[in-house]
Design goal:
heterotrimer, A mainly alpha (about 80), B mainly beta (about 375), C alpha+beta (about 170), B: about 375 residues, mainly beta, 16-stranded antiparallel β-barrel, two-stranded antiparallel ribbon, C: about 170 residues, alpha+beta, Glutaredoxin, about 25% strand
Chain lengths: ~80, ~375, ~170
Amino acid sequence: MRRSSLLLLGALSGTLLLSSGCSLQPWVKPYERDRLADPIMAWDRDAISSGYMDHIRESREGSRGATGGAGGGCGCN
Amino acid sequence: MVAALLLIRSTIADVLPDDRADVFYSKYSGGGMDITGYSATARAKITENFAVEANYFIDKVSGASIDVLSQASVIKDERKQKSGTLEYLHDKTTYTASYVSSVERDYISETASFSLSQSMFGDLTTLTLGFADTHNTVGENNGTADVPNVAWVGHALSRAYSGGLSQILTKNFIADVNLQVITDAGYLANPYRSIRYLDPLNAKGYSLASQVYPDTHTSTAVQVQGKYYLPYRAAVTALYRYYTDTWGVVGNTYELDYTHPVLNKWIFEGRVRYYKQTAASFYSDLFPFAGSQNFTARDQNLAALDNTTIGAKVTYAFLPDGWRIFKRGTVTADVSRIRFNYLDFRNIKDFGLPQYTPGTEPLYQFSATVYQLFLSVYF
Amino acid sequence: MHKISTLLKRCAMAGIVVASTALAAGGDASGPAPSFTLTTLGGQASGLSAYKGQVVMVNFWATWCGPCQQEMPLLDQMYKKYKPAGFTLIGVNVDKEAPAVKELLTRKPVSFPVLLDPANQVSKAYHVDEMPSSVIIDRKGQIRYIHRGYKPGDENDYQDRIRQLIRE
């Protein structure tokens, strides 16, 4: 429990530092996101299908959690 | 028999996804079990910033799985799952709230979850935080499949905390790390599974007894994944997940995915997954005598096992550019073949005395095939 | 320890400045609009100088950008409405390859000029930091307003600004 909260704290401080500017500019410009916006670059094109596979796995394995992904895409708006 | 922890699988915190409806059919066949599933999902934006999604899922189970020792008859059951999700986008933050209810004759599971996804640093970084509460009611059918007699044996409460960080590393490469800590308390065992212990007085050489599980369980899972756009239009994904819990189970998942589109009409996907876990500390295929340990389990999910999956998926856009109100229409077929290999769980349903003395029966292995077929329309 | 706290203080201050400017969907801007010359789909050269003396809106868009597609028909309507009053709209497309742009414009044509910026030189010169971005330039060639992103209803904002600059 302790190690995971430290990890989370580390991740949060990392992002706070990144988002505060700090003379580090986003290195992929919004007009350079054509590939990232391609549907094949989505973590999950069909949530219903991956949700179903997750359910099958959890029913037959002793593990659970941390599946899924976020971010990417066109970055518009 | 597992809590339907429907945590938000994927978010893009810049615009809400397109409106979409899916009808889904699935079939799982393997290990003596046949499970057919049907589902319908629809999501729509009520305003530019607010969307709702609803899903209905029915699973029909039939068969006689390896571990059904206490029941003489075949399993036949139906699971109905309903879920509703609300999504709200404000500036660079997406807030999501959802509720899932899963009901079977002998198992009820309800989950309420909330998550927040924040896009930052020029939309290169996405931070996600989530939390879910699950309540399960566990029962045991003491009758038969056709004439049930369900007795409710216990409740379990589960709380999940998750955090994720996604980072665009280059024009072609995105990486993501997810952490999830889940704590459960209450009745955590499967009432249909029993342990066995050596008993020379029994004709089989062993006798059955109830499992005794701890009434708490905490698990931590960390997953890292990366997706890379190849020099030609295709993407490759690599994933690794590490799992550990207070019951002594350590699980490692490795997965590799390749996605290859053709024009605007076809998307082909191939995947390979390898999973390996160690057994729970209180698990044993054969205990030396009754009451040898405080906690005892012989549930195959807690055994030392590994499994390998090979899957292929094809998506065909029958409406690549839309038609009237539809922006796009696709049909998808997905087949996965999973080979399960148990390292300390023996097949005592098909093998026993006189050929095999208790503890020498062949280790259990089986293969399962999962078919999925779905139609999706976007508008 | 002292150095770390100073660094953190500086980062925090920079963060507040960056965050406050980033929060605004649209902001008044200033400075001369960088001139540029690009080609149309047909291969003809054109640029900002062709529209000297007019109120110009430069809209940066891409075929892979959903909100860009959403605002195109509205931009087209706006262009047709204010063109007689001395307004022009230039669509600067940032796609790396032309075929997708041609295919989209054949299916959903627009009447305002579309110029191609595959090397992203113009996007860089205008410091485009959001997709789509609309830069509104006055008759004297000065940048007056930058609108970042698009949400339905933003077209009213564009029209207010354009009308204001036409009257000048």
